[in-house]
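REQUEST FORM: STRUCTURE PREDICTION
Request ID: SP-0412
Submitted by: Lab K.M.
Chain count: 1
Length (residues): 261
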Amino acid sequence: MEYLVICLVAVLVSALSLVSGFGLGTVLMPAFALFFPVPMAVAATAIVHLANNLFKLALVGKKADVGVVLRFALPGALAAVIGAALLNLFADAPPLVAYHLFRGTHDVTLVKLVIGLLVVGFAAFDLVPKLNSLAFDRRYLPWGGLLSGFFGGLSGNQGALRSAFLIKAGLDKEVFIGTGAVSSVIVDVARLLVYGLSFYKTRFNVFRLKIGGLVLAAMLAAFLGSFIGTRLVKKVTLRTVQVIVGILLITVGFGMAMGFF
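STATUS: Completed
RESULT:
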């Protein structure tokens, strides 16, 4: 049953992310978090995200601007390690508060509160036109790498910030895509090393038994969703999908922060 639900969610998320403008990680992580603990959801999303970016890397990686990658992705990798380590620290913190609602007990933990609010923030970043159109000068590339890498390691959300800083780097379309793919792979590898060390020490067997196979299934489902999404682009109003997905993400983010998930 879990495989059926996760795969259906992955197909839907992948299709919607393709036509909505939301990054795969931004939408897929909350979907995983509906069924698994937040740190596990972030790590699982990182694996799917890395697989997707490796696919893009094979297609457009040779177009990447090496200079931009070095200035942007190397600080991003360092910050991703810090963000991922912070996520592990938050995961072990006791609940901040517990309350009863609708005949159930809900725990507001530090990790759920932080990740939930970040989901809301990045959903607004992609949803609000003024925020979505933000762009920063090329000289700020190292700072952009630090910011996007940190939030990528902490919550899996990095695409919006990465684009905001790379868009002004003076790259043409193919070089922009290739540079983004290479940078994203470097950050994904860095944060997965930290996640891997954490799970090896504390949750490896749980991850392997409960979600390892689901991650592989989600990868395949995401590829199918992308295929479906290419057909939806011609049939769905882009702004309508953006608003729907944004509202869903904000709802899930607040629900996570309040301990409902």
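NOTES: DSSP finds eleven helices and two strands in the chain.
Reviewed by: T.R.
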